[in-house]
Amino acid sequence: MDREIDSSQLPITRRKKLIILTLLFILFALAYGVYWFMFCRFSESTDNAYVMGNQIPVDVQINGRILAINVDDNDFIEQNAVIATIDAIDAENDFGYAKNALIKAIREMHQIQITNEKLSASIQLKQVTLDKLKQDLERRENLWSRKMISQEEIIHARQDVDIAINDLNISQHELAINNALLMQTPLLKQPSIQQAIFKLKQAWLNLKRTKITAPVTGYVARRSVQVGTQVTKGERLMAIVPLDQIWVEANFKEVQLNDIRIGQLVTLESDYYGEKVKFKGKISGIAMGTGSAFSLLPAQNATGNWIKVIQRLPVRIELDKAQIKQFPLRIGLSMHVNVDTHDTTGKLLTDIPAKTIKYQTDSLSFDESEFAQLIDDIVKTNFYATQVVQ
Fold this sequence. Notes:
Layout: H1 10-38, E1 43-53, E2 56-59, E3 64-69, E4 76-77, E5 82-86, H2 89-145, H3 151-182, H4 191-208, E6 211-213, E7 218-221, E8 230-231, E9 236-241, E10 246-253, E11 265-270, E12 274-286, E13 312-319, H5 321-326, E14 334-340, H6 368-382
Antiparallel strand pairs: 1-10, 1-14, 2-9, 3-5, 3-8, 4-7, 5-6, 7-9, 10-13, 11-12, 11-14, 12-13
Helix pairs in contact: 2-3, 2-4
């Protein structure tokens, strides 16, 4: 015989289930509320974040034709390594012209010094001659007063003295003219020599610049140059991305920025690596304007109909360089950012001025001791003293 079910127990069973389910929802809500109060309210997150980094441009510094390219996109290159080579024929010719111009200027200055020495000796000789003629004139004048010589002799004696005086004055003026060119100035400080040295240095630099070197260590990107291309000064050849100059720019809504401060710790995830890699970072700065304010055509909210749009403010996050070296990121990759806002004692804006150089390179400078040695050799070969005035 089938067992009969008491229908009066059904509402009671259903009521118990509803009560239990309601209690579970309440407990869940309370647990979530406690969790939010203890943890979630002290964090801000966004997935509107992207990897940023310096893209160091490699530009041409002289005009010429590309003879060789040593790298391609994605290649690793070290600082000061040769990237490309420009045909050096024109630069070598300009260097030769400038070198000969300096040699000519030095020899001309040497000639002026020798001429000065010659004029000084000539002036001394002419002064001695003039003194002798004056003595002769004085004796003849005594004889003339006693009527012992003719008038013609005394006239000739006086003319000889006048001629000697004029000749001496001419030589003295010639010496003064040459001294005006020298002005008691050392050889390498002479204006004509300085001008020739500047032109030679420019030609020397242009010759060095036919070898295009990497300004930093990194990876080649956006190579646009080809072998045989005629390039002009300032033209962009490629870019180099250094891995140690990578950061994340997170675009938080303005309503999320109330508790965000400089120095707060950040946890980041990249779609590239997934949840298995947790990047660590800290906030290093908050932008001074929204993206729309700094856009090429900023919004004009005072015209026409207006609809409020919540703005986003870029927040810069510095990453752990050791972690970036282990798990390299690429510029433009998206990131999920979570900021720990427990500590709000940090500053909204930094008030410490930058006192150190953040980025620099020595690939654009050359060892000028080589050029100084070149000038010294030219002077020693074409001039026998280090100074014009001894």
